[in-house]
Structures are given as C-alpha cells and as structure tokens.
C-alpha cells in the first residue's frame, strides 16, 4: 500500500487522483495525527511499562541474595548454581528476536500475558526443587523466556503510543529497573528470613502475576494513529533502504564496528557480576549474618538512577559525547570492581557501590546512542541486533566464569578483579573514538584529532 493510500484512510479530503501525480505527502496531515499520540492513555501505558521493568529488576537484583541460601540448602557449589542466572540472563537476550516476531504477529497484550505466566510459573514451580537441575529450567529457562517477552514488549510498545515524547516516555519506563533494584532486595531478604527461599519464590510468583493487570492497558492503537506512524516510518524507510543495502557490506569491513562488538561482548560477560555476587562478597567480608549485602544491592539501583539522569542530561546537552560517556561508564564500572576489593568498611563500600551504579547507568543508557552515533540511525536495527546478540552470548558464560574463579580461589575478590579488568578493557577500546568525536565538535581541539585518527586507523604504528 502506497503512502498516498495511507493518507486517504487518514484524510478523506485527499483523493487518490490528487496523489497520482508527483505531489509530496502533506506533512501537516501527519503532524495533526501524530501530535495526539503522546497524550491521555499513552501515559497509563508508560506506568504499566514502568511496573513491568520493576518486575524484571526483581529477578536480576535479588538472585545474589537467593544464591547464598541456595548454596547451603541444596549443598551445591557456587559454580553449579551460577548457571541459573546465566541461563536466565542469556535466554532473555537470545529469545529477544523471536519475541519481536511474536509481537508483530500476536500483539503486545498476548506477549506480556505469556511472559507474565512463564515468569510467575517459573518462580512457583521452583519450590518443588530438590536439586539444582530443576532450577535450571524454572528459574533459568522459564524466567529467561518470560522476561524476554515482558522486556521486549514493554519497551517496543512505547513506539506505538509515543512519537514526539518517545525519549521522555522511554526514560520513565526504564527508571522502573532502578526503582525495582532499590526496593526488591529488601522485600526478598525479608521474605527469605520469614518463609525461607521456597516461600519467597512462591510469594514472588504470585507477585509477578500482578503483571496481568499491566497487560490489560495495552490496548490496540486506533487505526488513524497507527496510519500516521506507518506513513512516517514508511517515508523514513524509503529514504534509507538503499543506503542500508549499500552500507551493510562496509559495516563488516569497519574496524570500529568490531571494537564495538568487543566492548559489548565484554560488557555482557561482566555487566551483572557485581550485583549478583555482591551479597556473597559482603558475607565473606562482613560476616554471614550481615545485612550489608542487601543494603548495597539496593544502593546500586539508586546509583543507576542517578547515573541515568546525569548522563542523559550531559548527552542531551552535548550529543557528540555519547560514545565517550559509554566508554567512560564501562571503564568506571571496571574500576569500581577493583576498588571494592580494597574496601574493608561499610562506608567505603557504600561509596564504591553508588559509583558503580552511576557508571552502570552511563553505559546502559548510552549503548544504543553509541551505535547510532557511529553507524547512523539507518543501520541502528542491524548494529543493535548484532551487538546485543554478542552481549547475550557472553552473558551465558559470565556468571559461571566468575563462579569458577571463586571456587578455585576460595574468595569472590579474585572474580571481581578479573571481571573488573575485562570491564575496563570494554571501555578503553572505545575511549579514543569517543574523544575523537568530542574533539571534532570542538574547534579549539582540532590539533588532537590527527594523532587520535592515526591511533585508531593504524594502531600497529604505535606497537
């Protein structure tokens, strides 16, 4: 169906004969329809997405608390139990593309319904586990697929209900991760103390079922609004389709693209190790009965929220700094891993944890913008798909690798040091590029560009 035929459905005043010539579509028709998308029911959808993102955070941020209890109750090593979070986190990334296809066919409400039932069912069925193998399926596979459904739908639906205020709506929805990261460690820790890990899993499964209320507000958008968005998207696709075909081959020949993939792979390997093993780290350092671990896990959420706001404002003010902010965030997270090993007091650990959350908010927020800045919006879907697939693959190995290092060395400090070093490398590989982009936008810094350009394009000269 052509662009003009979409306009006929939107505006009866525009006839097919008028569109048969070379007249360009009137943008005022698109604006009149699109400007109404960001109001009313759309903000209720954002609140539902915020809640669903908090549910997602409830799983990832509390697994470290569950890990301490599971190692004692099931009498299994950290390495054996680490595969649970690995399967869950890797599965969430691995199934994202499949979930996107299901959303296209069945809609957001059906996908969120499926994801909510799978996530809740995985938590409820976990209470029957007498060994870690059942947990691989319930907490790992079922939660991974369920969270993939909930995560993808709660983010993609923003594009159906918003246009002019998409960035604001997306920021509010993503803030649910930080808020959930702050609240749920206390909730799960209390439930474990009162009812044990099985009772906690049962109650959390019932809590996840509240996501069914969120999917109710995911109504099908009205045809006029969708037509307006489809016309806008169709116009963008017509402008960029030929560019994508010409640039796909050059993308695979771009040395910068491979450095971005290396960065994403290393971040997937190390990105969640800090928060997963933080309760175990604090138990070894401050005592088994210490509640410091729960407190610090929640502080990661606070720091992440602060980081998201601060760095979003920085990049909004200086758009060319997205890659540099992403790289600094990765290197900063790795540095916090190393500093945590040197902290033997709660106040110092508090400072390091807040800093880690802030830097974590930087690279998480800037991941997509970094790819868009370096490879263009017309190739964003392609670069994001490849980059996030690399991160998803490495996520499968991240937690077991850290657990194996912990089992071999007898302490979590070794795992923090190794993963911190890899995290620093993930940022360093892109810092020269980020610095170059910032300098390119600053007329007073032109003198540094030539040196950086040679370092990036031909690093062999400096070996």
From TrEMBL:
Domain Major facilitator superfamily (MFS) profile: 42-438
GO MF annotations in UniProt: monocarboxylic acid transmembrane transporter activity
InterPro entries: MFS, MFS_dom, MFS_trans_sf, Proton-linked_MCT
TM helices/strands, residue ranges: 41-63, 83-103, 110-130, 136-159, 171-192, 198-218, 256-280, 292-315, 322-342, 348-372, 384-403, 415-438
Cellular component, GO annotation: membrane
SUPFAM superfamilies: MFS general substrate transporter
Keywords for the protein's UniProt record, in alphabetical order: Membrane, Transmembrane, Transmembrane helix
Cellular localisation: Membrane
Membrane topology, as annotated: Multi-pass membrane protein
Protein's UniProt name: Major facilitator superfamily (MFS) profile domain-containing protein
Organism: Patella caerulea (Rayed Mediterranean limpet)
């Amino acid at each position: 169906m052509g662009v003009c035929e979409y306009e006929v459905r939107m505006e009866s005043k525009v006839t097919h004969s008028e569109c048969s010539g070379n007249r360009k579509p009137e943008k005022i028709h698109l604006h009149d329809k699109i400007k109404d998308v960001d109001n009313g029911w759309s903000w209720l959808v954002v609140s539902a997405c915020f809640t669903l993102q908090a549910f997602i955070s409830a799983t990832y941020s509390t697994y470290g608390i569950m890990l301490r209890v599971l190692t004692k109750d099931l009498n299994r090593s950290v390495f054996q139990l680490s595969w649970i979070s690995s399967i869950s986190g890797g599965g969430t990334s691995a199934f994202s593309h499949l979930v996107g296809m299901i959303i296209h066919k069945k809609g957001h409400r059906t996908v969120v319904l499926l994801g909510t039932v799978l996530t809740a069912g995985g938590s409820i069925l976990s209470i029957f586990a007498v060994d870690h193998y059942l947990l691989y399926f319930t907490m790992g596979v079922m939660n991974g697929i369920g969270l993939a459904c909930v995560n993808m739908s709660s983010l993609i639906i923003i594009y159906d209900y918003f246009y002019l205020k998409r960035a604001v709506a997306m920021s509010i929805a993503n803030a649910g991760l930080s808020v959930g990261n702050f609240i749920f460690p206390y909730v799960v820790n209390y439930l474990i103390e009162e009812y044990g890990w099985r009772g906690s899993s049962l109650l959390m499964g019932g809590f996840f079922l509240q996501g069914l209320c969120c999917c109710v507000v995911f109504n099908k958008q009205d045809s006029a609004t969708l037509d307006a968005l489809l016309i806008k998207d169709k116009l963008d696709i017509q402008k960029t389709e030929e560019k994508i075909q010409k640039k796909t081959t050059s993308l695979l020949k771009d040395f910068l693209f491979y450095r971005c993939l290396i960065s994403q792979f290393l971040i997937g390997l190390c990105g969640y190790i800090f928060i997963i093993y933080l309760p175990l780290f604090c138990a070894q350092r401050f005592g088994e009965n210490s509640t410091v671990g729960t407190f610090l896990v929640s502080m990661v959420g606070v720091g992440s929220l602060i980081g998201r706001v601060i760095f979003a404002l920085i990049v909004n003010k200086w758009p060319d700094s997205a890659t540099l902010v992403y790289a600094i965030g990765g290197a900063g997270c790795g540095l916090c891993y190393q500093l945590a090993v040197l902290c033997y007091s709660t106040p110092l650990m508090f400072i390091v944890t807040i800093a880690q959350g802030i830097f974590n908010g930087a690279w998480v927020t800037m991941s997509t913008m970094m790819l868009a800045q370096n490879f263009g919006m017309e190739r964003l879907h392609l670069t994001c798909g490849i980059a996030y697939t690399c991160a998803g693959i490495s996520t499968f190995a991240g937690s077991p690798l850290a657990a194996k290092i912990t089992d071999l060395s007898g302490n979590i400090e070794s795992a923090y040091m190794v993963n911190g070093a890899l995290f620093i490398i993930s940022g360093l590989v892109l810092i020269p590029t980020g610095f170059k982009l910032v300098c390119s936008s600053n007329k007073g810094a032109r003198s540094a560009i030539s040196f950086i350009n040679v370092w990036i394009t031909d690093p062999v000269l400096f070996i």
